[in-house]
Amino acid sequence: MSIISNSRFIYVHDNNKHAVDTHHIIAQRSAVKPIVTYLLAILIVAHALFLHLEKGKPVTTVIWSFFFGAVLVKLLIWRPIVKESVIIMPEFGVQLETHYGSGKINRRFIPVSKILKPVLNECVTPVTCCWCLSFLIRDGNELTLVFKKFRPPLKMLVPIWKALCVATDCKESFEFQEDG
Amino acid sequence: MEFKEGKHSILMVSDFFYPNFGGVENHIYLLSQCLLKLGHKVVVMTHAYANRSGVRYMTNGLKVYYAPWKPFLMQNTLPTFYGTLPIIRTILIREKISLVHGHQAFSTLCHEALMHARTMGYKVIFTDHSLYGFSDIGSIHMNKVLQFTLADVSQAICVSHTSKENTVLRSGLPPEKVFVIPNAVDTTMFKPAPERLSMDPIVIVVISRLVYRKGADLLVEVIPEVCHLYPNVRFIIGGDGPKRVRLEEMREKHSLQDRVDMLGAVPHAKVRSVLNSGHIFLNSSLTEAFCIAILEAASCGLLTVSTRVGGVPEVLPDDMIVLAKPDPSDMVHAIKKAIRILPHIDPQEMHRRMKEMYSWHDVAKRTEIVYDRALRCSNQSLLERLPRYLTCGAWAGKLFCLVMIIDFILWRLLQLWQPDSEVEPVPDFKRTELKTEVRK
């Protein structure tokens, strides 16, 4: 079992079960961030209550402050997805799992015959660049993302990509060739 | 790819790049290709075009970032001042860039990138490709923005001495910081026809955008006069634009349909064949910093007749070009002179001389010298750099200082949110060249 971690994700590679190769990406949980965020939310509500009780502001101020505090907690702490996994069953296929905070698990299975090639793509958004691991599906128009929401760093994606290449029998190529 | 001593990692930034076609786009692409051949690493950043967004690789591994910021006016990205800071910071760190080279004063992405790069301590270079005015409201604002960007640039490059004078006056940049590196032409692509054309009829070629700036109105006066004086002269006009209608009307009015061919927009790949069908190239621009079109014409062995504006007199030697004032009668006089000296012109000789005078490899080597000079400039902190902005004007100076201070604060906040160590560098891909098989 090998583990790689950074401030946002932990990568766990579990190949103890001989037939099946499992790779997990787990969202990091910080200890300090929830405490600070809850304190901030409580402060906002307390301030609104003070304004209502002492300064005579309308009760809608308190309601808005609750709403604002809830939004803050949701944005900064609430993680809808806690873990995404890739389970590789050689000769058979790949199962992609998404584990939600509510306990729900979403599973997608892709048979090995449908996978043309696993690719590592560089994606550019208006604010940043990231790497995405996806499948080229036979007879498909679009790439299928392996990780729905998580964007783990390249050092975690490369071992998963290599394992997928081996399982789907594709030659790895990280050189690009040019006609001479 | 291990980086050798003296080799740089350059980020070229502009709103103008392929798939758009034009002088600036061509310049960036060809300069990048020559710098790659010299062993440097070059990455280009521009905005997304239609559905072309993300990372693309061009010939020789030239990496292009099409950042998904949509253009809002004349190919320019919406100026948000600080909106592009995160993406530019990410690209600079992950590609391990050592200097940033911005192109074209009319590119908002270029100005923003240079501002953010300076805030983050990178050395920046700016290349100005066009001449601008001083008096109209658009130019006044553009010049103020240029003053801001160039207040703290490491070095600047202009494409002609006239352009250098124009840029120095507009921006207040000290002339010692400005290098003059002319554009060049791909002489392997622009070659004369193998067989010399017969002198009857004499064909005069015009290839340009048919807009006011390119002197389309002058053509309307000049063409009928020349056709009247010389019955054996024909015109070929390539290009499109708002003034095309005026030229069509002129053709109808003087019944010149069989003597003036209007080709419409000519794709860049077909320009050579159009040039090779003529003897004389006519350029009637009202303003031009350099004019690559006349280089292409001279490389194809055509004698050039041009208006004496901007940087045009610096481009070709006196025996390859006839200059005239941007006035119809003076231009007709120049065309008369050109027709007289045409029999003495040897297209192959002209092409050979152009090959020796202009090459993109030479431009790349000279640009390398500018890069070396820029990297030798001292690193300065924000406080040391702010006084440069104060010289931009009584109110403007203070505003610019404020803009830079806010940019600095935003950069530090961004570093707290996502430290530099969290931005993963991109692995350098090895290029392997396939050897072509010799088929028997």
Automatic annotation (TrEMBL), chain A:
Source species, domain of life: Eukaryota
Record's keyword terms, sorted: Membrane, Transmembrane, Transmembrane helix
Phosphatidylinositol N-acetylglucosaminyltransferase subunit H conserved domain boundaries: 85-148
GO process terms (BP): GPI anchor biosynthetic process
Gene Ontology cellular-component annotations: glycosylphosphatidylinositol-N-acetylglucosaminyltransferase (GPI-GnT) complex
Residue ranges of the TM segments: 35-53, 59-77
Pathway(s) this gene product operates in, as recorded in its UniProt entry: Glycolipid biosynthesis; glycosylphosphatidylinositol-anchor biosynthesis
Protein family (similarity comment): Belongs to the PIGH family.
Protein known as: Phosphatidylinositol N-acetylglucosaminyltransferase subunit H conserved domain-containing protein
Biological source species: Ambrosia artemisiifolia (Common ragweed)
Automatic annotation (TrEMBL), chain B:
Keyword check for Glycosyltransferase: yes
EC assignment: 2.4.1.198
Transmembrane portions of the chain: none
InterPro entries the record matches: Glyco_trans_1, PIG-A/GPI3, PIGA_GPI_anchor_biosynthesis
Pathway: Glycolipid biosynthesis; glycosylphosphatidylinositol-anchor biosynthesis
Keywords, ordered alphabetically: Glycosyltransferase, GPI-anchor biosynthesis, Transferase
Origin: domain of life: Eukaryota
GO cellular component: glycosylphosphatidylinositol-N-acetylglucosaminyltransferase (GPI-GnT) complex
Domain Glycosyl transferase family: 195-340
UniProt entry tagged with the keyword DNA-binding: no
CDD domains recorded: GT4_PIG-A-like
One of the protein's GO biological processes: GPI anchor biosynthetic process
Domain PIGA GPI anchor biosynthesis: 47-136
Example of a GO MF term: phosphatidylinositol N-acetylglucosaminyltransferase activity
PANTHER family for the chain: N-ACETYLGLUCOSAMINYL-PHOSPHATIDYLINOSITOL BIOSYNTHETIC PROTEIN, PHOSPHATIDYLINOSITOL N-ACETYLGLUCOSAMINYLTRANSFERASE SUBUNIT A
Identification of the protein by name: phosphatidylinositol N-acetylglucosaminyltransferase
Source species: Ambrosia artemisiifolia (Common ragweed)
